[in-house]
């Protein structure tokens, strides 16, 4: 808990009032109905909740929050429940309520002139992408869980994803925001302005705050022109140094063409092709590492294939790339992306794994992979490093799979030791222990060492000022005071 005593359990009278407000489809209290909302996607946390509240609009949510705040009941926001760090899971006390925003799922407006969309928190990222595409535009944010992840959670965690190298994280796409505050008040910030220099940019407090300052209910998101041409290639490289050399070659040609640039280790790719049905390597033989590069442009006259082939031709001559395949159709492009997107599933099938979502300066990614692999191998002989991710922006998912034959529970019992071994390398390389997944319930213990002193105290002051009772997602981000 953060700077507060144990919250109150909701009384029968409060639950009756909430039920009357929300209606029969707006509140769940039966244990079987509540249970799916009390376990995170990775099954790291299993909590209990007094109720799941499902308001259908901002006014109902504001009334719910006001009632809970007055009663001293802690609230845990939940969208698609795809958190990798337990950030949307209630604790074990049974005193908290989960507030799920999935019924707030309207796309309110798309403006083709402003190139913006106004979307509610419960809309899935995939639905928002599809709506933008139908309007002839692009919502460039793309993550593996986009079919179930919802806009509210995506913004609350400042999600990054595959296209960050070109378009930035979620924060860069948010022009305006609406949020319900911890006392039930509503922050009305749904502005479509590119320039608005009128004091603090309060929307940025809520983006990345993981629901600790309030509930994001709607947002104005920037859209981009829909690409007229897309080209993708899977390249075999010797190591992360070669991957960065290839990245530099594409960037030198035209940085505006790079839509995604993803790194995969040979070990991780072997798990994907062996354990995931329908995944096969389209190259002549396995390689130590791989790069998936995707170029895109909205220009009518661009010869994107020629641009891709020119860089790859130079990379072959320089010895940077040993083999490559270019997608010849949309089906083949999606097959290449399947090799990247199925890494987490392949690792799950291979046994227990410990996930590290870390970032370092782009130039230091090779050192990260080499040094963290060695540190983890020294800690647990036979451990299988399977790093992959967004090498173009310095974000690597440094995941580690249990040694073959090791008891999964015994391996997971050392998860903090493994995370700390990786984190020590990351910190020495001036990186971050959380690049895009957030802090959640999994990593608050790291905050004092990484963000301590004036930085963490400033965060605490903001939290106390906006949520003095500490009722908003109380176990996320902050370690016990």
From TrEMBL:
Pfam name, any one: FAD_binding_4
Superkingdom, natural source: Bacteria
Record has Calcium as a keyword: no
Residue stretches making up the FAD-binding PCMH-type domain: 45-226
Keyword tags: FAD, Flavoprotein
SUPFAM superfamilies for this protein: FAD-binding/transporter-associated domain-like, FAD-linked oxidases, C-terminal domain
PROSITE patterns named among the record's database cross-references: FAD_PCMH (PS51387)
Record flagged with keyword Flavoprotein: yes
Entry's family note: Belongs to the FAD-binding oxidoreductase/transferase type 4 family.
Protein name as it appears in the record: FAD-binding oxidoreductase
Native source organism of the sequence: Nguyenibacter vanlangensis
Biological classification of the source: Bacteria, Pseudomonadati, Pseudomonadota, Alphaproteobacteria, Acetobacterales
């Amino acid at each position: 808990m953060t700077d507060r005593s144990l919250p109150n359990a909701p009384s029968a009278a409060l639950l009756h009032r909430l039920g009357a407000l929300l209606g029969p489809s707006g509140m769940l209290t039966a244990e079987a109905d509540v249970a799916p909302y009390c376990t995170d996607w990775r099954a790291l946390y299993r909590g209990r909740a007094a109720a799941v509240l499902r308001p259908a609009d901002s006014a109902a949510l504001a009334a719910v929050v006001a009632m809970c705040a007055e009663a001293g009941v802690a609230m845990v926001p939940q969208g698609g429940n795809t958190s990798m760090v337990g950030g949307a899971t209630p604790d074990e006390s049974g005193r908290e309520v989960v507030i799920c925003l999935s019924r707030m799922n309207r796309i309110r407006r798309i403006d083709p002139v402003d190139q913006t969309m106004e979307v509610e928190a419960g809309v899935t990222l995939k639905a928002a992408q599809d709506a933008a595409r139908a309007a002839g535009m692009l919502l460039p944010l793309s993550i593996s869980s986009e079919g179930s992840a919802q806009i509210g959670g995506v913004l609350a965690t400042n999600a990054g994803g595959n296209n960050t190298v070109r378009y930035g994280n979620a924060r860069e796409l948010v022009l305006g925001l609406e949020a319900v505050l911890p006392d039930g008040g509503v922050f009305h910030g749904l502005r479509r302005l590119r320039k608005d220099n009128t004091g603090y940019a309060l929307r940025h407090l809520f983006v990345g705050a993981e629901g600790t300052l309030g509930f994001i209910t709607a947002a104005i998101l920037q859209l981009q022109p829909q690409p007229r041409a897309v080209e993708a290639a899977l390249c075999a490289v010797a190591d992360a140094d070669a991957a960065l050399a290839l990245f530099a070659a594409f960037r030198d040609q035209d940085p505006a063409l790079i839509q995604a640039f993803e790194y995969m280790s040979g070990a991780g790719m072997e798990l994907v092709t062996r354990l995931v049905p329908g995944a096969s390597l389209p190259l002549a033989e396995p390689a130590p590492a791989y790069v998936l590069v995707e170029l895109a442009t909205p220009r009518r006259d661009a010869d994107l294939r020629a641009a891709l082939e020119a860089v790859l031709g130079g990379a072959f001559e320089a010895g940077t790339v040993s083999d490559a395949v270019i997608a010849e159709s949309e089906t083949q492009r999606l097959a290449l992306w399947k090799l990247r997107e199925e890494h987490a599933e392949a690792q799950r099938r291979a046994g227990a794994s410990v996930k590290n979502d870390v970032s370092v300066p782009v130039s230091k990614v090779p050192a990260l992979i080499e040094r963290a692999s060695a540190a983890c191998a020294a800690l647990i002989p036979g451990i299988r490093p399977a790093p992959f991710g967004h090498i173009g922006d310095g974000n690597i998912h440094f995941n580690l799979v249990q040694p073959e034959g090791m008891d999964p529970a015994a391996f997971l019992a050392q998860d903090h030791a493994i995370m700390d071994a990786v984190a020590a390398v990351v910190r020495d390389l001036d990186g971050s222990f959380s690049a895009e997944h957030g802090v959640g319930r999994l990593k608050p213990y790291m905050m004092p060492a990484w963000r301590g002193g004036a930085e963490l105290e400033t965060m605490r002051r903001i939290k106390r000022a906006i949520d003095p009772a500490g009722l908003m997602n109380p176990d996320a981000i902050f370690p016990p005071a």
